[in-house]
Amino acid sequence: MARTQSGESVLSRAVRLVEAFRQGEEWLTVSDLARRTGLHLATASRLVAELTEHGWLERDEARRVRLGVRLWEVAARASSALSLREAAMPVLEDLHAQVRQHAQIGVLDGTEVLFLERLSAPDVVVNYTRIAGRIPLNASSSGLVLLAHSDPAFQEEVLAGPLESFTEHTPAAPMQLRRLLATIRRTGSAYCPGYLHPDATGIAAPVFRHGRAVATLSVVVPNAPQARQWEPLLRIAAATVTRRLDGTG
Is it the case that residue 157 has pLDDT exceeding 60? Predict the structure, then answer.
């Protein structure tokens, strides 16, 4: 693979350009991309032109740049995410119909939870998650479930920090998190009132494939004592997806 004088491959530079787009951003200029990636403006411009030719980026009349539909098409073919989504969507839709708030699918990616799907409705409680959005593992019900069922060495790596707090209720102390993770493994779900926002409670349960936790189903509901009523439903829904993935249900 061709490399630049600095030793970095052209592919690595192209990946940096694509990953420079942040959540919620649609259009950027080439100058924005060059500044964020540390690439020379001429290099960024050349790579943008090549990626646009392949459909991975798109440009408008003002020469602004955004991620291309072709990139989404290729990403959507990812077999693990595709099979998970196909197995989970009917269950997620039923869950959303009952809870009438936010219902979502999350997976582990690095030290964050990445959300593959979210169903919502007008006039529901605040929710920071977005499709293709990320949240630190310690701050969300989905992240804590995935962390609870991950390798102990990885858990210790995450607990070593730094751990971000969003509210006064976000668990960010290692000893507190160890107790919380043990509770999640024992009960089969995570109940997280006010961890991301004071008005919202996150509840999540693990989805397994051949004994390994590969995802979560979760809901975000108003922060109130009656929110706990949804924990059994989450566990049942996640178990249903697990059976579908394992071909037993």
Answer: yes
pTM (whole model) above 0.70: yes
Closest CA to 65 of 51, 86, 84, 82: 51
CA pair distance 233, 122, nearest whole angstrom: 22
Instruction: Write out the DSSP string of 6-50.
Output: TS-BHHHHHHHHHHTPPTT---B-HHHHHHHHT--HHHHHHHHHH
d(CA 83, CA 139): 27
Distance CA 80, CA 178 (A): 29
The DSSP result for 75-120, as a single string, is HTT-HHHHHHHHHHHHHHHHHHHHH-SEEEEEEEETTEEEEEEEE-
Q: How far is the C-alpha of 155 from the C-alpha of 147, rounded, in Å?
A: 6
* C-beta of residue 219 within 8 angstroms of C-beta of residue 202: yes
Closest listed residue to residue 195, CA positions, set 123, 243, 140: 140
